[in-house]
Amino acid sequence: MSIINIDVSFPLDEDGYFRRECPLCIKQFKVKIEEDEINKMGKNQIEDYLLEDSQEEVINQKDLVEYTCPYCGQTSSCNSWWTEEQINYISSYVENIMIELINKNFTGKLKKMARRNSSLEFKGKNLKFKEPWIAPETSNKFKIINLECCDEKIKVDKNENKIYCYYCGFKHELED
Asked: Residue ranges of the domains in the chain?
């Protein structure tokens, strides 16, 4: 299999925060992550879709890092915090990879065979690529919280009065 290199960029809000979603309570929040780290996470997610079962050990090693939901306090692996919209966005890249492979290795080869052999006829068309799209970020329903335990900041729902640190799980009582 050849190496496929795709740059995936995700929108950040005006303060540079990236949206995350708890896989358990499904509530959303935002964390401050460098753009190149977000792009790396996106590439890893694409690789997870494309890896064969024999390479499952590689996926499991990436899942060793765990984070804590700021709302419910449950932990989950680092690859579990995607929003549904982010997953759909990443999936469109994966689908385009598959479409390219089908067009090149199946449809293209059948067309060549039909041209070379007059007894064959192929009327197939190349599959069309999907345009990856994700909505721009806003931050109207979130407030910035300083997590003194890890010297980090996150954005959570404005109505929350307690949160857990996304990085270490420490419980914070918030003042109004």
From this structure: 17-92+137-173
Q: What is the DSSP letter of 107?
A: I
**Residue 80 three-state SS:** helix
Joined tokens for residue 82: 């995607």
Number of H helices, E strands in the chain: 4, 8
Q: Which residues of the chain register pLDDT less than 50?
A: 1, 53-55, 59
pTM, full prediction: 0.78
**Can you give the pLDDT at residue 12?**
92
> What's the distance, Cα to Cα, between the start and end of the chain in Å?
55
In this predicted structure, what is the pLDDT of residue 150? 96
- 61: CB partners within 8 A, 6+ apart: none
Distances (CA, A) of 170 to 10, 71, 118, 163, 174: 28, 12, 72, 8, 13
Asked whether the beta carbons of 114 and 121 are under 8 A apart, the reply is yes
8: CB partners within 8 A, 6+ apart: 39, 42, 43, 46, 89, 90, 93, 132
- At position 18, the amino acid (one-letter code) is F
